[in-house]
Amino acid sequence: MHSSRDPRIAIVGAGPGGLTCARILQQHGRSVTVLEREASADARPQGGTLDLHADTGQAALRAAGLLDRFEALARPEGDEWRVLDFADAALLAHQGPGADGGRPEIDRGQLRGLLLDSLTAGTVRWDRAVTGVTPLADGTCRLHFRDGTTEDFDLVVGADGAWSRVRPALSQAVPRYTGVTFVETGFDHCDTRHPDLARLVGNGSMLAKGAGRSLVAQRNSNGHIRAYIALRAPEDWHVAAGVDLGDRRAVRTHLLTLFDDWDESLRSILRNSDSGFVNRSLFVLPTPHTWEHVPGVTLLGDAAHLMPPVGQGANLAMLDGADLARALVSEAGVDDAVRAYESIMLPRSTEAATGSAQGLDHLVPAQAVRAGSSAASPAG
């Protein structure tokens, strides 16, 4: 086994939290390996836009020495929110940029690229899918890979998201469906091709809420707007409706019937999108989600505290990564570091998960809302 001064550290998952942890470890001269099941950095689109909060995501980037690079890419004007009446699209509430102390937006892909570019070449091993983890008697941990091979590390960090393959080494908890589904679609070149939508959305995000149904549209970079049709519905709503999710026309027709009493300018979000529809059922872990400490393994981000996507997830994952890395470089040994990290992260995540559940209820209310206030972002 390596000494505590030179531990073998594996981070499973190349998302914002895991990459932040790796970056800070490397800044302090520590070696680290990031294992990612995707074949390459551009194997799939990384999703929509994130608002990074000053005390979490931005604090983590500052610790990583990357805040200046983030600020060069970020869109401070994207922090704007417009809340509209679902019945006539009248403006109910408006929150200008900087109202919450400044939460600039950045595309997920841009943030991931920024973090990847900051790492030493070869840090990320692509196409290296982990299938399971076995804690060993000596306090180390064995990773099992899809190709049948294994590798031992002094610390395995599960940063592998909602359906983590590392989590079962610590917890038997499994994500449960929230009762809310986001159906995602998108618009390209909005200022020229979809000017009416561009005006509705403004520079940041637009929200309209009805009974068990909401529409959210968000500016991304390069003139793209991403929209989320939020529904309180069974997870298999499309099966009950006889809708093939791969049939764009059928999905569009069904969604229009669900929003038939909404203002036509809002229904145009369903009618005129450029891309198809992607069904995203929202899952959460139990709150609180805790575990008995196990030497050689820990979790961060969604693997540790999956919660509704209302602006907290990526921010907390990055702060988790920063806190874990700082503990690893400051504590006497790996186990002391993990215990110190978990003592901070677990209570923090419980508080955040409780707030995020309330945020989802605010974003997609069970009853119609005709008076507005700004809501948490649906991309977090």
TrEMBL record:
Residues where FAD binds: 51, 108, 302
Q: Which reaction does it catalyse?
A: a tetracycline + NADPH + O2 + H(+) = an 11a-hydroxytetracycline + NADP(+) + H2O
**Oxidoreductase keyword on record:** yes
Q: May I ask which residue range the UniProt record assigns to the signal sequence?
A: none
Q: Does the keyword Nucleotide-binding apply?
A: yes
Which InterPro entries does the record cross-reference, listed alphabetically? Answer: FAD-bd (IPR002938), FAD/NAD-bd_sf (IPR036188), TetX_monooxygenase (IPR043683)
- Which residues are recorded as binding NADPH? 44
Span of domain FAD-binding: 9-351
Supply the alphabetized keyword list: Cytoplasm, FAD, Flavoprotein, Monooxygenase, NADP, Nucleotide-binding, Oxidoreductase
- Location(s) in or outside the cell: Cytoplasm
Q: Its Enzyme Commission number?
A: 1.14.13.-
Q: What is known of its domains?
A: Consists of an N-terminal FAD-binding domain with a Rossman fold and a C-terminal substrate-binding domain.
**Role summary:** An FAD-requiring monooxygenase active on some tetracycline antibiotic derivatives, which leads to their inactivation. Hydroxylates carbon 11a of tetracycline and some analogs.
Any idea what this protein is called? Flavin-dependent monooxygenase
- Origin species, per record, is Kitasatospora paranensis
